[in-house]
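User: two proteins, same treatment. go.

Assistant:
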Amino acid sequence: MSETKKTWLITGCSSGFGELFVQKLRASGDNVIATGRNAKVKLAHLEATGAAILDLDVAAPADKIESIMAEAWDLYPDGIDVVVNNAGYVMTGLFEELKQQEIEDIFKTNFYGPLNITRALLPKFRARGTGTLLYMSSQAGMYADPSATGYCASKHALEAAVECLSLELAMFAPGIKLLLIEPGYFRTRVWGNINYVPTRNPEFAEYNDAVRAALESQLGKEPGDPDKAVSIMIDLVNGTGVAAGKEIPLRVPLGSDGWSRIKSKCETVLETCESWEEVAKSTDYP
C-alpha cells in the first residue's frame, strides 16, 4: 500500500491503460474513480476491485462535464488527487477525404474532453494547492503520419494547450503538476478499434486498403507492454520506482518506437534551425 493513500480519477477505463490503472491502483490501496461511457455495463468488471464507477462521456458539453466532476470530487472526503486523462480514440483517413465533422468529433474526445475536465477541477486544485493532471498523449503528439490528420492534430493541440497551462500554473499554482505521456504502439484494444474514414475518392482506395491491412497485421504484435507502461506512469506521479529522486519533465515518451520517432523529429527540427539560422535572423530590423 502507498504511504499516503491517493484518490485517482481515470477516464476511459473499459480496457487498455485505463483498466490497468484501476487494477494496479486498487491493489496498492489507493481510491479510484473509474469512468467511461455506459459505465454500468462497460465497467461492471471493475466493480470487484472496489473502485467507484462513474458514467462519463468526455465528449459531452463542458457544463455536463463540470457537473460530473463536482459529483466525482465529493465521492471521497478529500476530493481528487490525480486525474488520468486516458479516454480517446484513433482515426485513420487521408486529409482530402476527411469531413469537418469527423475532425470536430475526434477533437471533442481527444482535445476538448481533457481540457474541460481540467477546467472543471483546476479551481479545486488551486484552492487546495496540490493535484496532478496526467494526459495520455501519443508519439502522434510530436510526430505526424500520413492518414492520421485527425488523430495527430488532436494530440498536437492537446500538447500545446497543456504546455501553455504548465507555464501558467508555474506562476499561479506551482503545487499542481502536469504530465504528458507519449506512448508508441502498445498492445491494447485501441489499435483494434480504429475509426477508419470511408474511402470517398476511388483514387485513394488502394492506398486506404493497404493502410488498413498494415495496421491490422500489427495487432497483437505491438512492441509495447501496457502493464509495464502503467507501472511507470504510476511511478512518475508518485515519484517512486524509476522516478525516485528525479526531476520529472512535462513530456515523457514510452516505448522504443515512440522514443525513436520523437527523437528523430527533434533532431530534424534542430537541424532545420541550424541550417536556416542565418536566413531566419536576417529578417530582423538592423
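Protein 2:
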Amino acid sequence: MGLEIDLIGATTAFGQGKPGVSFGPDALRMAGIVGMLSKNGHNVLDKGNVSGKYAHNFEKNDVSITDDLKNLEEVLDYSEKLAKLTSNSIENNHFPLTIGGDHSLALGSLSGIAPHYKDLGVIWLDAHGDLNTAETSPSGNIHGMILAQLLGIGNDKLTSINGYQTKLKAENIVLIGVRDLDDGEKELIKEKNILTFSMSDVRELGLNEVLRRTLKHLEHTDGLHLSFDVDSIDPMEVKGTGTKVPGGLFTSEVIMFMEELSKKDKLTSMDLVEVNPLLDDQNKTAETAVWITEYLFGKRTR
C-alpha cells in the first residue's frame, strides 16, 4: 500500500557556512523526486518550501553570533516553523519527508515528529556525529550540533524548540558511516552509550550486518526516522555537498541498505539533507540522492 507523503522543502542554509545548500530542495525536485515517489505508488503532496522571517538572508554573507553559535536566531525561527509542519503531517497520519537544506533542519523536523512517539528510533546516516555543543564545536556551526540538542544537551533555546525539552533518547539513536568526530562528540557517545558504526565498522562488518544490528537495537521503538546526509557517501561519488570527508559509503551499498530497510516496513519519517547544487556538476548529486532514495520507497534491484 502506498504512503501519503508530505514533501517538505527546508531551504535553510543557516546551520553552516557555505552558500548553495538552500537550493537543495529545488535541485531534488528538478532531479525528479516527486515523480519517483508517485511512480512507486505513493500519493505525494508537495508542501513547497518553508519560509521563515529571515528568508531574505538565506545566503547572507553577514553571520550573526549569539551564545557562541552562528545564526542562532535564524535557526530558532526556522526550526519552530518546520516543527509545526512535520507535527501536522504526523497528526494527519502522513509520512513527512523533509528535503534540504543543511542538517540543522533536523532540529525542526524531529522536534515536530518526536513528541508523537514514546520511543522514536533514529538512524543517523552521516559522515559526522552532529553531537557538538557551543563548548565543543570548533566552528560554531549549528548543523554539527543537532543530535546533542535533540538529546536535551546544549543551548536552552535550541533544546526547547516546539516547547518539548528532550526529543530523543540516546538508546534510540544509531549513527552509521561516521568518520569525522570531534573529541567532544566522542566523549558524548561514550557517556551516553550511543550505538555507533564508524566507516571502519562498516568495512569490517558489511552494511547489511550493520543494518541488522541497528534494527535489532531499535526493535523496541514505536516509530523510525531516517536522517540521510548525502555526505555519508564517498566524495568521489557525490560532489555537491558542503562538508566532504574521504573514505565514505559507496552508492551501491547505500542502495542495498535502503532496499533492505524498506522491506522491514518500519520507517515513519525521513530527512534528506546537505544537497548543495552550487558545489555540484550538472545536478548529479541530487540525481544520485533521488536514485538512492527510490530504493527506500519501493524500487527493487531484482
